[in-house]
Design a protein that fits this description.
Layout lengths: L1 H16 L15 E13 L2 E2 H10 L10 E12 L5 E11 L2 E9 L1 H6 L2 E7 L11 E8 L8 E7 L5 E5 L3
Antiparallel strand pairs: 1-2, 1-3, 3-4, 4-5, 6-7, 7-8, 8-9
Length: 171
């Protein structure tokens, strides 16, 4: 019994000693992260997204793209709960190399922030984890009124050139 109480006290002390996490500190996921989805992929050859490097090579203006190192990685969508229970949605570009995953870029998706959503789910297009084409396609389910019975669906699309498109789903 005493050991059980001691372990509870130790766990409580450890929890209180942890530094608070803020939504702006997205490199380390805070406890307020309600949904995290890793999906899609990207690759860059010589600092250019793969589609742009191929286009330059086809026109003959850049013949060195094929000889440069290629960086690869995947995308993450993260919903961070705010004090008012709404959420901010962030898009992260994660590079993968021999040292492990590293955040390349993290941006707040202002289209979601503007409508102050209550995010209820985020789902990738394909749950197998295998993407055949570069880019990302995911659906964010949200409510703009917490009393609403059904959520709205919004799509987040990144094409092979790295262009981001966010819109309310039409289906």
């Amino acid at each position: 019994m005493a050991v059980h109480i001691f372990s509870r006290l130790a766990l409580a002390a450890l929890a209180m000693a942890a530094a608070p996490a803020f939504a702006g500190d997205i490199d380390e996921l805070p406890v307020t992260a309600t949904f995290v989805v890793s999906t899609g992929f990207w690759e860059e050859a010589g600092g250019e997204p793969s589609g742009k490097a191929e286009a330059k090579s086809a026109t003959g203006t850049d013949s060195t793209a094929a000889g440069t190192a290629t960086r690869r990685g995947y995308y993450k969508l993260v919903a961070i709960r705010q004090p008012d229970r709404t959420a901010k949605v962030y898009l992260q570009q994660i590079a993968v190399d021999e040292t492990g995953p590293q955040v390349v870029e993290s941006v707040e998706l202002e289209e979601f922030t503007a409508i102050k959503p209550y995010v209820t789910d985020i789902r990738p297009e394909d749950s197998t984890g295998i993407s055949r084409q570069p880019g990302l396609f995911a659906t964010v389910y949200l409510k703009t009124d917490p009393a609403a019975t059904e959520p709205e669906s919004w799509t987040v699309l990144i094409d092979e050139l790295g262009e981001i498109k966010i819109e309310k789903a039409t289906n």
